[in-house]
């Protein structure tokens, strides 16, 4: 195999109570990438369609993630990467993670799979480090592994994949505003009350239990964020109305995707997810705020070979 | 049925990362109770063997818990309760919870099971309120329901039972010192760092995932408490040595049982649990500190009819 074409999925990180640890993979929202072997060693980004991103390997997240992998293998050939972006940068659904995940997945495949998919997370994290200064795994892990992922620990890196209940759908609305990650981070408080923290880890426990037992009601009861959402949601126009519209239309829960500005809702079944999409759209249409909206099953496999 | 004899199990609450939310039920450590119908309405505590506890119904945790249940049913007969205590008060393995759980379980059975076992938790919590001023559920829930229990929320009360992996054993050592709950509470800080809180809920997620997948290694990797153990363990003589002895002898993890002074270790298989018991015993023998030690499988059913 000399060339591989990939679907590189968008992801939702910071899933309500699972701030910084829980993410999920979307199924029909994502980029495409073509990766091919080349005689010249190293990595060249030969084409980027759909976004204004750097072509220099060292300045591109897929280049940096790919190089991190290549350093450990050092083959006597190299790779060319073409990127067809659909996920908007800064949307809060893992645009950079999709590119980092795709690059390491594709290169690993063309090398004959020297690494397991889970092992690739550490390399893809280097792309995230370039993108936001922090080698976080909560988008690249679900992008690579699919389903839900729990980043239990960074030191050592310990990632647990949790299969998604079969009828779980996400609705994600992206208001077309710019929300800088630095602003989203600056509103966080470095200390939290013990009481809120206990409620949060009770809900994390409930959410994980709900996923394993396919208990949609329990998933819904657990989808609360006591700590971050109250601080960050004020940065997102119409957040309360969007969330209310989602819950009134049958969402199990709703919250901020990543560090925003996208807002997600989870629901049981495609029909409910579509109904929620309509209700969310109506909120932004009423205030004339441009938006994109996605309805997607949870993707169980992560990056896919096309 | 006019009389019922019960085994009322000890429990471990505040399971490492699961402070205030996660507990488990022990299988061969516990009290016995006999509960029988009587013509006289209300509840009378007719006998207490093995502990110096109040016989007045309103001052006894089993009396108070039983009355909370009876108030909702109001039968035209009453109950007598005999209590044979084996669990020492103040040991940190749910002595009062065993009595509260036994009382409501037995009365419910003699009434023909008007309530599910899970529904009984709310009544047993009233016994805990008498015992420690706080109607907490993290001992009465596992005592009634068995296995592991997650108290996801108090308002509304939401308890999730999680079956224990089949080979999971607990070793519990009880140093014979008095540790007042008020002292154990006073060392807690009312705020925690966001970073520690995130580590804690990552570990709660990992622990729940490990229980559902019977992944003993993951259970072990998740059994950390970033927040409470560092503060409380200094109140328990030899804590660090006991924990080290447990881990060096194959424990998956070790921590404070309840608010102490008992220390628990979890392990895979009875042989490891026994080996840990020997190592823990050696620590307290070396410093001439009297102790009791228990080795028990996790009890999957809670209160048992004898």
Automatic annotation (TrEMBL), chains A, B:
Entries under SUPFAM superfamilies matching the protein: GHMP Kinase, C-terminal domain (SSF55060), Ribosomal protein S5 domain 2-like (SSF54211)
EC number from the UniProt entry: 2.7.1.39
Domain of life according to the entry: Bacteria
Database matches in InterPro entries: GHMP_kinase_C_dom, GHMP_kinase_C_sf, GHMP_kinase_N_dom, Homoserine_kinase, Ribosomal_Su5_D2-typ_SF, Ribsml_uS5_D2-typ_fold_subgr
Catalytic activity from the UniProt record: L-homoserine + ATP = O-phospho-L-homoserine + ADP + H(+)
An MF annotation (GO) of this entry: kinase activity
Enzyme class per UniProt: transferase
Principal subcellular localisation of the protein: cytoplasm
Every GHMP kinase C-terminal domain range: 208-285
Keywords: Amino-acid biosynthesis, ATP-binding, Cytoplasm, Kinase, Nucleotide-binding, Threonine biosynthesis, Transferase
Pathway assignment: Amino-acid biosynthesis; L-threonine biosynthesis; L-threonine from L-aspartate: step 4/5
Pfam families: GHMP_kinases_C, GHMP_kinases_N
Ranges for domain GHMP kinase N-terminal: 68-147
Subcellular localization: Cytoplasm
Biological role: Catalyzes the ATP-dependent phosphorylation of L-homoserine to L-homoserine phosphate.
Family: Belongs to the GHMP kinase family. Homoserine kinase subfamily.
Protein known as: Homoserine kinase
Gene name as annotated: thrB
